[in-house]
Amino acid sequence: MTSLDSAQLLQSLQTGFISKTHHSISELAPSLLINDYHREKKILTSLLEELSNCKSFDFSVAFINNEGLAAIKQKLDELALYSVAHRENPIKGRILTTNYLNFTQPSALRELMQFPNIEIRAYTKGGFHPKGYIFEHSNYYSIIIGSANLTASALTMNQEWSVKFLSCTDGQIVFSVREEFEEVWKQANEVNEEWLKKYSNKYEEKKLTLKLVNKQIKELRKQEKELQKDEDKNPIVPAFREELEETQFEQFTEFTTEIEIEEDDVEMEIVPNSMQEEALVALHNLREENQNRALLIAATGTGKTYLSIFDVKQEKPRKVLYVAHRDMILDKSEKSFKNIFPNIKTGFLNGSQKDIDADYLFASVFTLAKEDTLKSFEKNEFDYIIVDEVHHAGAESYKKVIDYFTPKFLLGLTATPERTDGFDIFSMFHNNIAYEIRLQKAMEEELLCPFHYYGLSDLTVDGEVIDDNSDFSKLICEERIKHIERTINLYRNFAYPVKGLIFCSRIDEAKELSAKLNNDGYYTKYLTGDNSDAERERVIQELESDDNPLQYIISVDIFNEGVDIPSVNQVVMLRPTQSAIIFVQQLGRGLRKYKGKSYVSVIDFIGNYENNFFIPIALYGDNSYNKDNLRKVMNTGSSGLPGTSTVQINEIARQKIYQAINDTNFTQLKLLKEEFNKLKMRLAKIPTMMDFVNNGFIDPHLFIDYAGSYYEFLKKMDREYTDLEPKHRTSLQFISLEFSHGFRMHELLLLKLLVENNTVTLEQFSNELSQRKVVFKGSVKQILKVLSKEYYRQEDQKKYGEISYVSYDNAKKTFSKTESFNSMLQNNLYKEHLLDLLEYGINKATIKENEVYGDDGLVYYRKYSRKDVFKIMNFDKDQNPQNVGGYIIQEVEGRKKCPVFVTYEKAEDISSSTKYKDYFINNTRFNWMSKNKRYLNSPDVEAILNQETNNIQIELFIKKDDNEGTDFYYIGKMKTDYESKEQTQIPNEKGQMLPVVNLQFDIEPSVPQNLYSYLEA
Q1: Can you list the GO cellular component terms from the UniProt entry (predicted)?
Q2: Does domain 447-663 have CATH number 2.40.50.140?
């Protein structure tokens, strides 16, 4: 929004403060900002939107921490770069904070000082607790005032209330807020090196004091735990808190909530976390069912090794064998066992040690698999065997070991069980998945360290993007090295020394990059597959050590798995995303919690890579391969992530990801086969469509897109799959292609009810719809019509043959199956496929938590094909797209309806005479052109101009461009602005001018900012 109309603002204030039923532009109305990622709401989102569009900004916040800055850092950097490039018109910011409670991190202030367009001051005269954000625009201000400080938890996760409101520049509220800000700003101290040094000393003193308090409380909690055995004893900790001065305890609480306190000197009891406890119950229950094998699937950093140890503790086996493929895994695992069982007798079996008599033996799979070594053990030697990184079990050495032993229980550990080489790990463990902890769930449970992902476009030199596809000389050219150095220095936590991993794909690049970084004052080493385990372990220990200056390990083809470096607080990806699995593995290197690590920075240099579509799959855990789903999660930004983690992607990199989504064919048989076989192996059966949905796998509609129906796909996979008669196959194709994508519930639910019952009354049908939050507004006539031959165009009638499913007794108000449909249902395989198909469609049609119905049961911002829209709006017949063009007016049940279809970005190769100037003026206003060869008095134009008189329902549908396919987002209702009408012209290919009418519409409701930004980008 470039400027504010005071009349529109007045209307929005009436909506906000007088009556919510008053119509106005919702974006202008005052709004409550909260954090609830389940509803894709975060205060951070509004803050970033305002920073993206403002002329200047002022923040007045009591507390600032590094993670709060990390959540907005990319935007601050963009504003700083803009300001340097536009010195005559920079976007300046002022940030006012305080030394109150000595809470604000000095490193956060130092971080802010690197931005040349930002001034920082600190109020030091006592209590200071405001949380306000002021943004200047062309002729108005946006203001956010509430409870949220500039901390990541406040902006993304905490229960916070903030109100956002707009005011014209001359408004009293703006005057009051700005006057107060200026008054306090004058009294505040400039934050410079001298002031920051003094404050840092006080901050460290307070931190030390609070560590001591923290230690006291932890010691008292131990005593309290003992006293809890005696119910007559009173708790100690509350009494201790009462002894503390109120302000001291408030400081302690605030401090420990926002800052990770180092606890080297406090002995911590290792106990199962929430998800480990659930998994332990699941493992116990499996054994109660006499199962002796199980898989545990757990994201890196969630503690799968400790979970296996806790299970050993509850099972109490006589002898335990722990198998892995690297000595460093065995070493760390043995130390973990000792942390829980300090007195056990442990030993190693590898190239240098043969402690075969140990009760807890940690064995290299390569040593153990040797014939003479393996046969030296009895088959039942071990009661409990744990196989780590079990996705390698397809290797002969693993299979040999697993096939030889007969333990009472065998547990496989992995973060990535799905393989593309065809080996079935699941059957090796009898398809028993004891528990599964994926990345997003682990984040939600706060088992992992939060991450801040920065997706950055790689450097462009002389018009060429330098990325992994470039010549080696360009990869290590001075400009790119400086680009990398600036980025890794900017996107780090200033509170702690960098402990970083840099992933490259070429050894020569890693070697040269390490040399050049070291020459510029960094301290790095590079490791490749050629380095031994001992060499790798030595370098890892150097990185982990606080006394060693090593900052970065540059890695090639290693460290994707099987290595644990908890201190890593920065991950740099200088290679293309090969797969979602590898992306998550490399991201996972930094996600383990560690003392003093409040978050990990993830820097991804995004080039012109075909596989960029894996980025949203990995970050958001959406494995559907559904293009619209991937675009949607990209649009949500950080709002769709649990906890304080954020995703920040600059616009060039964002467009590269969208391009990869658009260009990739997700219906290629190779991908479909891989995804199908993954789930088939997991379930040990041919999966249904709903199995894919329930297990979070590929969207099964892609099988329909490829083959016409899921049944047809199964026939392509296996020619021996049971045959169906042509009429059954045609029926499944008809329902698959016309209804399964869930454009609405009615037809799908009715068919399902009739499959399960002989008849269904209209009342029963309406009640069933109501239970699914659908109001039956359509007509029985329309439902019967779209389930019959007459509705469809000639080419579809030929493809689908005779269509006859439902009849209706008007007198009894009852639906029943037609004779032909009832006959087809006698085939059980057809019936199974049909019910699965209908369940899938109903699931797609079901309205989600964030969705809202508009007119005719259209769901705002869902995507529909033209054919879907005509069905939903109750058109008599399907319409030929060539006859429709951009819009059509048709009378339906006494009211004229006009769906308007707009391709927002017109392709270069389309006819000049159809390159209409259709565009958003703002979130609530749309400019539109009629078809060519139209005048103000043309019947269709005149009908739209006189919308109210003609009782025309106008609905807007938009797709960004033709790369999105044939479906359009439902935007909402449009109201014609009669005064905006203009007779104008548009040229054709020959340069001749054709008459066309230009006019503007008001859109209701206003377009959400994330969708608006996507369409406008």
Answers
A1: cytosol
A2: no
